[in-house]
Amino acid sequence: MKAHFELLAAYNQWLNSKVYEAASRLGQDALVKDRGAFFSSILGTLNHIQVGDILWLKRFATHPSCIASLHEVANLPDSTGLDQILFEDFAALSAQRAWLDRQIVNWVSELTERDLEQALSYRNTKGIASTKRFSSLILHFFNHQTHHRGQVTALLSQAGEDVGVTDLLVLIADEAEA
């Protein structure tokens, strides 16, 4: 299971780089234009992905195996809402995204199979307590990113920017190479 999460962490980093590169070719007006998406704009959706990532990583930082590896993320300010705009400035948002992706890759590399089998107790944004298998929560974390990145690639396409190939298959080694 750990190898799958390492693949997803690498995919997250790779695809975010492509998405942010495409978005960087747009002006501020195009980035903030309300395109009818759930988080309104390209910039709004990119901010939401980071808000969600930080929210989950801060929860993950309470897991005994993650206290050290997610220490810097755990010290980030708490979000004020799922639609919070962390950064209006695209360059600042992009810089934090790159930093956050490095944190994710490093964190996943330090996990063990035993860590993944344990449970994690947390409270959702409405304060409701829950306990779920840690590996299932990590899978949700990566799935959330993929879901909203798909929305961003559609919004970028509408704005005339092509992200290019987004398939996870690009990062999966051929059996002959493995």
Describe the protein in words:
With 178 residues, the chain is mainly alpha-helical. The protein has helices at residues 2-24, 28-32, 42-60, 71-74, 90-110, 113-117, 134-158, and strands at residues 119-123, 129-133. It has a two-stranded antiparallel ribbon with strand order 1-2. The radius of gyration is 16 Å and the shape is globular. The protein starts with a helix and ends in a 20-residue tail after the last helix. The mean pLDDT is 95.
Q: Helix- and strand-based class?
A: mainly alpha
Q: What order do the SSEs take from the amino end to the carboxyl end, as H and E?
A: HHHHHHEEH
Can you tell me the residue ranges where pLDDT is under 50 for at least 5 consecutive residues?
none
User: What do the pLDDT scores average to?
Assistant: 95
Characterize the main sheet.
2 strands, antiparallel
- The share of residues in helices is 55-70%
Give Rg in angstroms: 16 Å
Distance between the termini: 17 Å
Widest sheet, order of strands: 1-2
What's the number of extended β-strand segments? 2
Strand content: 5-15%
Task: Specify the number of helices.
Answer: 7
Q: What general form does the structure show?
A: globular
Set out the fold topology.
Elements lengths: L1 H23 L3 H5 L9 H19 L10 H4 L15 H21 L2 H5 L1 E5 L5 E5 H25 L20
Antiparallel strand pairs: 1-2
Helix pairs in contact: 1-5, 1-7, 3-5, 3-7
